Recover the amino acids of this structure.
């Protein structure tokens, strides 16, 4: 899609911070100094998310279409985080065969609009937490410092919503952070956070976070 008049310069990434956050409607959450927050159009994003085939994997409601955790839930995610991931897929900073192809077809305005649409949906909610909940609480204490006590972010625009995300997707991403397969966390923050987690701890965390 070509729409230079509506092109939006996307967020500059700060060291040791995730991208700036915009709640989908016009009012933005607090953003790090110097960050550029995309102001997308929710109505346009709804149409584009269908025409650009986002809904085939992520769902019209943003809660994904299952299939072993292959597709992230995007409902209620911070728009600037979604925009940053699409930018990273497009540049190759984040690897995924399908998403790299999909992102390359998007203009800046498309990215901002799609991000605004998914960010404006009711925030994702997972299944009830299960497994060793007490052990999970202890592990999550470190995560909560950045992602909030319920995994819904801290309101300072620095970190994405993870509470309610698909458990299998969470597990896949934590393993990718740990192995270094995924490295698009500013300053390597997530690689550092995941590097000492065991497989069992990752399972416990993923199930717990998904249930939030």
């Amino acid at each position: 899609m070509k729409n230079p008049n509506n092109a939006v310069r996307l967020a500059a990434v700060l060291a040791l911070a995730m991208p700036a956050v915009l709640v989908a409607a016009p009012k933005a959450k607090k953003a790090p100094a110097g960050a550029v927050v995309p102001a997308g159009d929710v109505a346009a994003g709804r149409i584009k998310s269908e025409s650009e085939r986002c809904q085939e994997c992520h769902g019209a409601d943003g809660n994904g279409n299952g299939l072993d955790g292959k597709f992230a839930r995007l409902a209620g995610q911070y728009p600037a985080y979604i925009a940053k991931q699409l930018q990273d897929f497009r540049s190759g900073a984040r690897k995924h065969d399908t998403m790299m192809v999909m992102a390359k077809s998007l203009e800046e305005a498309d990215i901002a609009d799609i991000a605004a649409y998914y960010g404006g949906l009711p925030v994702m909610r997972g299944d009830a937490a299960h497994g060793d909940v007490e052990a999970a609480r202890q592990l999550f204490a470190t995560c909560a410092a950045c992602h909030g006590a319920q995994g819904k972010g801290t309101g300072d625009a620095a970190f994405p919503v993870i509470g309610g995300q698909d458990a299998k997707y969470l597990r896949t991403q934590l393993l990718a952070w740990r192995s270094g397969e995924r490295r698009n966390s500013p300053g390597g923050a997530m690689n550092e956070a995941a590097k000492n987690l065991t497989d069992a701890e990752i399972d416990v965390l993923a199930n717990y976070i998904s249930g939030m």
About this structure: The chain has two domains: 17-119, 133-210.
